[in-house]
Amino acid sequence: MSGGDINALVDLWRASFIKNGLADEDVPFANKDDLYRVIDSTSSSDVPWESFSLSYNGELPKEDPPEWMKQEFDVWFRKYKDFMSGEWAWKQANKISVDPTTHGSSFVPVILGSDKTTVSVATGQNEYYPVYISIGNIHNNVRRAHRNAVALLGFLAIPKTEKKYANDIKFRKFHRQLFHTSLARILQDLKPGMLVPEALLACIVQGWCPRCIAWPNNLDGRGGRRSEDHTEVLANFLSPVVLWDQYGIVSDIVPFTHDFPRANIHEILAPDLLHQVIKGTFKDHLVTWVEDYLHLTYSKKRADEISDDIDRRIAAVPSFPGLRRFPQGRHVPPDIICTFQAFLDFCYLVRHDTHSDSTIQKVQDAVKDFHHSRTIFETLGVRPTGFSLPQQHSLQHYPWLIRMFGSPNSLCLSITESRHITAVKEAWRRSSRFEALGQMLLINQRLDKLAVSRVDFTARGMLSGSILDYVKNYHNDAMEATRALDTRAEHHNTEDNNNGDSGPVPGPLTPGYVKPSLNQPCLVELLRRFLYSQAHMNDHDAPSAFNIPLHQCPMFNSRVVATHSAVAYFYAPSDCSGIGGMRRETIRATPLWRKHAAHYNCAFVERDPSIPGIRGLDVWFSHILDEPDELTGLWKVQPDTNDDGSPSLEIIHLDCIFRSAHLMPVFGDYGHRFIPSDIDFTNSLDKFPTFYINKYIDHHAFGLSQG
User: Fold this and answer.
1) Are residues 163 and 74 in the same domain?
2) Which of 200, 365, 416, 505 sits at a 20 to 30 Å CA gap from 99?
3) Residues annotated as region Disordered (predicted)?
4) pLDDT by residue (tens digit) across 26-41?
């Protein structure tokens, strides 16, 4: 909220005090400056910002040195005084345990994340390089739930120079060294906690793997794991040129881990799902390769027509919160679909909240299947040079990384990317845009104080209920005190009771009234058969409700209430959820959604709790096969119908609904034909005869499909 908005809100607050006969000076805050003063005086989360400056210390040219060599670069940071099921944490704990001087200490692994972000493009290309910090002792669900477990640690300097110096070797070396020196300076308070004299002497050349010594032109070939001992031996006996060309080692840069003996950079680089998997392999590689395939195979006009049809197919997929779409159809060869299937299986497997030897084996199998299927792009001429790509090569290391650091779903840079919004982008918008960094630091400090104060107030019971509850309780207490002295207490009490019932109360509806509004003429019959099923739920010898005459079913003519949505709660720790892993989902059945069209969600109905996974659920569609489709890995279903072709209808108990389901049309039914332009997400469920159950809609649905 801007300062002007705060002042306006305070004025409204003061006006309400005056209107109710209260002194306006009793308003808690006089203006925005008064509010800021109270926040700044809060002792909770009082971590001040500090800064230091770095500059180039190499040899200067005799004539006209570039500006970047003469500039000082400011770095801002904060000091903090103050994943654990993985094997890496246990190894470090074992090392600490053998040192008698560390007995009684706690192992606190530090997790760092940094990623440059741009806050404005058209108005000056304003960029910032925030660094975020967390610790491994925090549970994954807390970090992923954005409960202030990831904190802004500092802002790194971004050196800029003229275009003619942009590719200068000295400038590029200085740029890299500035990054490492800044981190080393920010983290220097951690050094006393590290006692074993180990060091890493070099960085890695771009294009090489930081974990193994596979060659960059054959990353999927054999290559042993990198180690600091191996790097140290090479650095002592080989020249910088040989280290660069033959081993991918940058020997003239001192990494920030140099003074941190427990920071073996080859081991502690955590997996990065966002840049390696989602953006790297999926968006930059697979999606681009499909587009390249279309333009290699067809004329430009035909390729554009196919691309438009793919867009229409995506638009025809029924809506769903957090929709993820699966490319399937007849515009690409089956092996391309298999490539996407294997890759998506890998994505969802590594995002499991917990892992076992079984799931890790499935991850390895998915990588193997992906490597096998992706060769279609080489065969078709899309990737004639092969697949020696660092992002895809990183997939091979995920099984080992999961064993070392646990589930990667709490180490993804998407968590720090989301912190960009509050820590950088929104803070920049609140600033005056002139020398904004100092203002952004103060804004972040105040936000931290408010967050910690809220936790403190909640623990003290100061934030129980809402402000309306507080006002009601305050008003009720005042009324009780007044009634004790007021001789008209009975009169007031009568008025209070009448006020609670004032105005017309819309009554429930009868089934006969609801029937035409729902366009279900057989509603009363279905309701009576439902009551029969409920009455004979535990009688296994009783005939089915649909196999008896209607007159044997209970009569029902009471009032009912029609609602157009229901809320499902289920345990889904791998998806965005609360700290306890519970996820909330709204299932809608409304004839008019957002003034546009009808919105009817599909849902899983639990028929047999003893059967695991999707086999124990029903979506009122019949499985076409007993196993998922071999090509896509998705279950194929078709709507249930009666003998006369009419839809199979039944009323079920609300408790049977497990969660929403997402169905996608089988576009392959159209063959190579384009789908009609009048089909969209509002009517596709009525236009197609068969559907896929989309297991990729979220991680919980994917888990159901695994059984």
Assistant:
1) yes
2) 200
3) 491-511
4) 777 888 888 888 777 7
**Strands (DSSP E) found in 29-84:** 49-55, 72-78
Q: Beta strands of 503-595 (E only): which ranges? A: 565-571, 582-593
Are 348 and 288 members of one domain? yes
Which residue, 186, 204, 392, 398, is CA-closest to 285?
392
Do both 71 and 86 map to the same domain? yes
523, 429: one domain: no
Q: 269, 404 in Cβ contact below 8 A?
A: no
pTM of the predicted model as reported, rounded to 2 decimal places: 0.65
pLDDT score for 383: 92
Domain membership flag for residue 491:
no
Residue 625 shares a structural domain with residue 538: no
Tokens for 692, please give them.
């896929």
CA atoms within a 13 Å half-sphere pointing along the CA-CB vector of 254: 10
Exposure string over 368-390, b if 16+ CB within 10 A, otherwise e: ebbbebbebbeebebbeeebbbe
Q: Are residues 7 and 57 in the same domain?
A: no
Q: In angstroms, rounded to a whole number, what is the distance separating the alpha carbons of residues 289 and 350?
A: 24
Q: What is the pLDDT of residue 606?
A: 80
Alpha helical stretches, state H, 1-117:
3-19, 32-40, 67-70, 87-97
Instruction: Select from 551, 566, 584 the last residue of a domain.
Output: 551
Q: Is residue 211 part of a domain?
A: no
Instruction: List the Cα angle 175/180/184 in 5-degree steps.
Output: 145
Say if residue 343's pLDDT is above 90.
Answer: yes
Selection from 381, 417, 133, 121 nearest residue 278 by Cα: 417
User: What whole-number distance in Å separates Cα of residue 410 and Cα of residue 422?
Assistant: 19
If one counts the domains in the chain, the total is 5
**DSSP letter string, 246-304:** HH-EETTS--GGGG-TT--HHHH----IIIIIIIIIIIIIIIHHHHHHHHHHS-HHHHH
Ramachandran angles phi, psi of 658, nearest 5°: -90, -55
Q: Same structural domain for residues 167 and 80? A: yes
* The domain boundary residue, chosen from 410, 442, 471: 410
Query: Do 637 and 622 form a contact (C-beta atoms < 8 A)?
Result: yes
Lowest mean pLDDT among 90-94, 159-163, 199-203, 582-586: 199-203
3-state secondary structure of 383: coil
Tell me the pLDDT tens digit for each residue of 130-173.
Answer: 888 877 777 665 555 455 677 788 888 888 877 777 778 788 77
The predicted-structure confidence for 401-434, as pLDDT tens digits, reads as follows 888 888 877 666 666 677 777 778 888 788 887 7
Max Cα separation, the chain? Answer: 105
